[in-house]
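Lecture notes, structural biology module. Today: joint structure prediction for complexes of two components.
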Amino acid sequence: MDIRKRKLAELAVRVGINVRENENVLVNASIDCAEIARLVVEEAYKAGAKQVIVKYRDELISRLHFLNQSDETLCEIPEYLVLENKYYCDNKFARISIVSPKAGIMDDVDPMKVQRQSIEANKKLSFAQEFVMGNNVPWTIIAAANPIWAKKVFPELEENEAVEKLWDAIYDASRVTMDNDCKADWDVHIKNLEKYFVKLNEYNFKSLLFKNSIGTDLEVGLVKNHLWAGGAEFTLDNHLYAPNIPTEEVFTMPDKYNVNGRVYSTKPLDFQGKLITDFYLDFKDGKVVNYDAKENKESLKALIEFDEGSCYLGEVALISHNTPISMSNILFYNTLFDENASCHLALGRAYPMNIKGGLEMSREELAKNNANLSMTHNDFMFGSADMSVKGVTYEGDIIDIFVNGNFVI
Amino acid sequence: MDIRKRKLAELAVRVGINVRENENVLVNASIDCAEIARLVVEEAYKAGAKQVIVKYRDELISRLHFLNQSDETLCEIPEYLVLENKYYCDNKFARISIVSPKAGIMDDVDPMKVQRQSIEANKKLSFAQEFVMGNNVPWTIIAAANPIWAKKVFPELEENEAVEKLWDAIYDASRVTMDNDCKADWDVHIKNLEKYFVKLNEYNFKSLLFKNSIGTDLEVGLVKNHLWAGGAEFTLDNHLYAPNIPTEEVFTMPDKYNVNGRVYSTKPLDFQGKLITDFYLDFKDGKVVNYDAKENKESLKALIEFDEGSCYLGEVALISHNTPISMSNILFYNTLFDENASCHLALGRAYPMNIKGGLEMSREELAKNNANLSMTHNDFMFGSADMSVKGVTYEGDIIDIFVNGNFVI
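The predicted structure, tokenised, for the full assembly:
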């Protein structure tokens, strides 16, 4: 076995959730990721975890459910699932997600059927997502290669070779090499990202202006008392963890009702197993009022119309065009990677930590501060090599943040 | 893909649980069995199932739990698991188990730790097993090959070759060939088994006498009004299903307190991931009073001492020595197969259907009829080529049932 696989597992445990003695850990993994899931479990116990529960999902079986079950059956969310999620929250399970995307496998499924199921499930289970996004527990995401994904990224290669090359790309992006001290390298990396968000916090911009040659011309207002973050975060009980492996972004909270202009996507978006390509969104007073896509417009519609908040922004993130993932020139067709190669926005829920005191605010207080409370959160990429980003201060000054796709601040 | 794999999946659905329109189905599968699990799901939906839930287990992760969790943590059975099992019972989920044994992987785990966890889990969850064993819903078991199992059965072969050969053996034993009509062949097979149990029911034996050259000399009393069964069974609502694929046995209910003598095992027994080999049991008035094993006596002890009923018998089954599985001369190291190559007994719970009116009896009534109500049920094999089985009638007549390992009745 590739030594980097165990190092990635260890990274998820020691840096990702930064597991504590006697902590409970929940691992969500695709069954294709069993090998790394087992390593994660081993490493978590080694690091002192009390109990590590693995929940496997099988996307091919999910597809069969959507193709064969009635809407009524799909939308019945049994009570035990609510209780199970409550158990994970009550017992403060740290979360590790192992994603292994299989874009395209849902192509023959009606996206509105997925949507209806997803809305019903969210009604009963979103409390758990809210709990996690509210930094009550440490959480992290890592990725594992699979043949479908590998062939999508490297269509010109044989399957085995493609899988190997995708693993290489995952390790590189995650700063895992055969012989590095991952933890030390990540500590340095996290410190670097901190420099940017500290500076951005000092500026305390009122809004950001995005412009590039393909037509993006967008002003994104930021909430008052917003906070930039990136790399590592703190839980409510002050425990440092790194929610994304890899991560290259600094991000903050847009003002839900103060976004205007047009934004063009620069990378396809994998949503519920379908790839939405070449799309744009028009915003007016924060809301998406018009949109189109080259492929899977129906899925984009589903994403936008998910709930009241899903047509408003919840996150704006800045990533230099010269970061390693971006420079690799690999299109991963997966948000965990592609969002770290490109400036991105998220439709849906905002992170409470992106506003001062947000983690202690009630839903009502967050809403009053123009934070998005949607049940969903979907990032999409719009950065480009020629992106210009300017910050507008409360004094009316305009400051260059990005010139030609890179930080200049 | 081997066409026999889909045929085996279809067999599980159409003969095994004989699924009904709009029925719920629960599939329990090892994650190594994903390929056939998906086929089972497909075939179940094709046959009209309403909802097919797959629960994957990962034995390698279970092993890590036992190696790393404290007894206290292992023995906490969360309430949601109880509710989940209740959900499957309330909604009458038919059950398909796909087993894929990995004998030996628990070798470094303390069997008493497994035992303690198992006892606690059973206290809270045995209602579900009781529900299924009480024929409230159709259930069936099929098997899938995996490399560990294959190398155990065919140690002299390369892994790939061993896996292929094990699949061949599974298909053969399950009466699945490239070109047969499995369902029709199974109908014939079930009719054949019926001939034996109808005859045995007519005799209405008081007890059975087992004797062979390696030292087995055992009298097994049968409960009054016992019923022999085999091949296919009926649920409480009169729906025919076949609980084991493969199956070659006819079986009935021993009298819990009327078993005397010694029995020698003739095949190793896989219990909680450990192989118990060359063991014997001495019975007095139904109870195991003495025992020994060449390997893993600790596990045998755990099995026998599980609860009040686990040191008494709950099933006695007759299988001719000339059945296909037996004639294949393959030692499967797995009960689903080996029990169908050899006469066997089970320590633990009896099947209520093996006594007249049993499915409608309360626990108290079953107990009054000397039925075993243990929370566990473990078959072990003791048949041999020279086995003699005689039946003792209430009139005192002694009738040959087996001579030299085969039915003569």
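Point to remember: The interface with chain B takes residues 31, 34, 37-38, 41-42, 45, 49-52, 54, 56, 58, 60-61, 64-65, 67-70, 73, 78-81, 83-84, 86-87 of chain A (CB under 8 Å).
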